[in-house]
Amino acid sequence: MNTSIIGYPRIGNLRELKFASEKYFRSEITADELEKAAKEIRSYDLALQKKSGLDFIPSNDFSYYDGVLDTAFLLNAVPARYTSLGLSELDTYFAAARGYQGEKGDVKALAMKKWYNTNYHYMVPEIDDDTVIRLAGTKPFDLFSEALAEGVKTKPVIIGAYTFLKLARYKGSKTASDFIEQTAAAYSELLKKFSGLGAEWIQFDEPSLVKDMTADDIQLFTSLYEKILADKGDVKVIAQTYFGDVRDCCKELCALDFDGIGLDFVEGKKSLELIKSNGFPKDKVLFAGVVNGKNIWRNNYAAALLIIDELKKHTSDIVLSTSCSLLHVPCTLANETKLAESYKKHFAYAEEKLSELAELKKITESNSPLETEEYRRNAALHSEPRSGRNDAVREKVAALTENDFIRLPAFAERERIQKERFKLPLFPTTTIGSFPQTAEVKSTRKAFRSGEISVSDYEFFIEKKIAECIALQEEIGLDVLVHGEFERNDMVEYFGECLDGYIFTEKAWVQSYGTRCVKPPVVWGDISRAKPMTVRWSKYAQSLTDKPMKGMLTGPVTILNWSFPREDISLKESALQIALAIREEVLDLEANGISIIQVDEAALREKLPLRKSDWRDDYLDWTIPAFRYVHSGVKPETQIHTHMCYSEFADIIRDIDDMDADVITFEASRSDLTILDVLKENNFRTEVGPGVYDIHSPRVPSKEEIRTAIDKMKERIPAEKLWVNPDCGLKTRGNAETVPSLINLVNAAREARNENC
Ligand code: GLN
Ligand code: ZN
Q1: What DSSP string describes 557-591?
Q2: How far is the CA of 644 from the centre of ligand 2 (A)?
Q3: Span 168-198, pLDDT tens digits
């Protein structure tokens, strides 16, 4: 059995690509130097994969920012507002990714969205009626040739035609089906070019096939591939799916002239069942995703072998693969120097997953698989009892009843009580929580962590930053203040550190978007609150101002979704354990005089199952209650805010209302405030602060621009329910753009307020 991976992390073991790109953005290095850094990462990863014995080594899984954006450039689907800036090719690309504000113009970035059910974000391609899709770029060919020059004939990886057309946003009257001919022609030409270069296998990533598909979708998919595969020459094509199963299009997929089909046997609930009932075409290779590409636990070979044995009954041509691209796991355990061996031996990052594939290959090739050294070692590891059990927590979770999830009095009554209490002006202004994490903040935290400065010096520093942050917000004139979140590195790790049951990695970075990476903590055991988490900072902050100070917490669903979860208990059980802990903190904040508490659920929608039929049972039925439990114990006059980012939550809008928060702020600016119509149609009850500008871009929004956003909001939502705020936390921004942006925001809100009076 050969082995394959769908893609490898591209940021480099120590995030070299991030640092090089950011230097390039600051004009500290040239484009050539950036390219050199990127090439070094690619060469290193290539050599590593070759050495591991991997049979199908991917290329073009590298990207400077995002693979979907790369595909848009490859296919000429780039809005004129970027190409007309007159920038270099690389800078045009970065302008689309990050926005551009400079002597050549002022444009916002493309919209960004979550990649299926992951915490990776892709750039949404824009297609308008004038777009002409054609093969316009050379990157996949260049990277194939680059690897070939290093002695490896790779398997180029490209986002497939169907997925690309499904992910794009159509600005004009045309839709995906109007672009079938052009798109198919572009992909055909791509295959021909690869054939000319000597490529053997090409992988088209088609994760959209695991979503619910309508008859039109299936038609779109088959029309595209009937054309693309019609004369593919001597290259072999894999339809690679992941994040689920292909139950809606299984027949069509198998009937098309693909040479290989990649299926996910980890998240694909029905993958095995589909093969058992339909069989698998004899003329195709099955790329079987049996090694989890999303989690960091060591593969359980016994479980993998069960799947493989079952598959062998239906096909003889199997390639062992990962369930999805390894983009979603950190690079290597080699840099985890602090983590105890007792934990580490249970982990497998990308590099270790390569050796798992090699071991599985060896095991499956052996005459007595269960006797192999590799199998035995793995079986022994998985039979070890797990530490970290907490019976008290388990009992509390088991004892929860329906009333525990209901906050009283009901929303309208609370809204009245709170309006009376806070007496905020119309269009109250606030921010989402974090203020810029400047170099000073980061270096001081680093010094504290390495023991260079004492606890008291560090705490003194944080208090100083809080005081500065409050003075700044008062000067700018914001209505509801925040303490700035200087004590945190990110919104999950900090809480994890105050909770028992969590463990932490040192270098387990995973790309979130562009140059941004996250380092998810690991849920190891049962969770409980070890100590108050934010109380001292919020209390201190409130003591410095008469304005309301928002307490700032992360919600249970987000904490869980942004962690590497356990696989030995259910996600629901883990979420409720975390909810118990966050509720204790909420009540503690309230008892300490904090009158507004924001519980961020930035990642609530992230793990919503990709198929609608799984939404309730598999997700909403426990995530929404977990959030409700966090705040159901507060007084009516305590105002609960929540925040969500990057979500398309139109389809779960009622569930969001049902979280029963008093106020919700969310990302809206990049999606052109389209969510407002949905709020209006659904008579959304919760007060709302749709983000009036995009904090993911360094550009400063003008007062007029924000005014326009407020006016749009006003048209659809009663003024008394509206808040004015940026679309997410400001931690990734610098003070240089944050201060003028917030001044413009406050002035725009004041102007709107005056006009309304
Ligand atoms: N309160 C958090 C912050 O401002 C929210 C971050 C997020 O939504 N990702 O940083
Ligand atoms: Zn956010």
Answers
A1: HHHHHTSB--SSS-HHHHHHHHHHHHHHHHHHHHH
A2: 5
A3: 999 999 999 999 999 999 999 999 999 999 9
